[in-house]
Automatic annotation (TrEMBL):
This is DNA-binding protein. SUPFAM superfamilies: Putative DNA-binding domain. Keywords: DNA-binding. GO terms for molecular function: DNA binding. It comes from Cellulomonas cellasea DSM 20118. Coiled coil: none annotated. The keyword Cytoplasm does not apply. Residues 11-59 form the Helix-turn-helix domain. It comes from the Bacteria. NCBIfam families: excise (TIGR01764), HTH_BldC (NF033787). InterPro entries: BldC-like (IPR048048), DNA-bd_dom_put_sf (IPR009061), HTH_17 (IPR041657), SinI_DNA-bd (IPR010093). The keyword DNA-binding applies.
Length: 69
């Protein structure tokens, strides 16, 4: 069993995921610990997230429309 993602698979940092969801990076880490988001650990122990999974989760959230007055 291989724990390595496919070479062509894009991975995002917690900061990149946080900016997409407009939350703090610590929130992204809590989501991973709660099992809401799958994380991959680098050799240095840092978390990375599969872009495809993040985009899928993001697409499930209704978008807020900017209101102009």
């Amino acid at each position: 069993m291989s724990a390595h993602p496919a070479e062509s698979e894009a991975l995002l940092t917690p900061s990149e995921v946080a900016s997409l969801f407009r939350v703090d990076p610590k929130t992204v880490t809590r989501w991973a610990k709660a099992g809401k988001l799958t994380s991959i650990r680098t050799l240095g122990g840092h978390r990375r997230y599969r872009e495809a999974e993040v985009r899928e989760l993001l697409d499930g959230i209704p978008r807020q429309r900017a209101t102009t007055a």
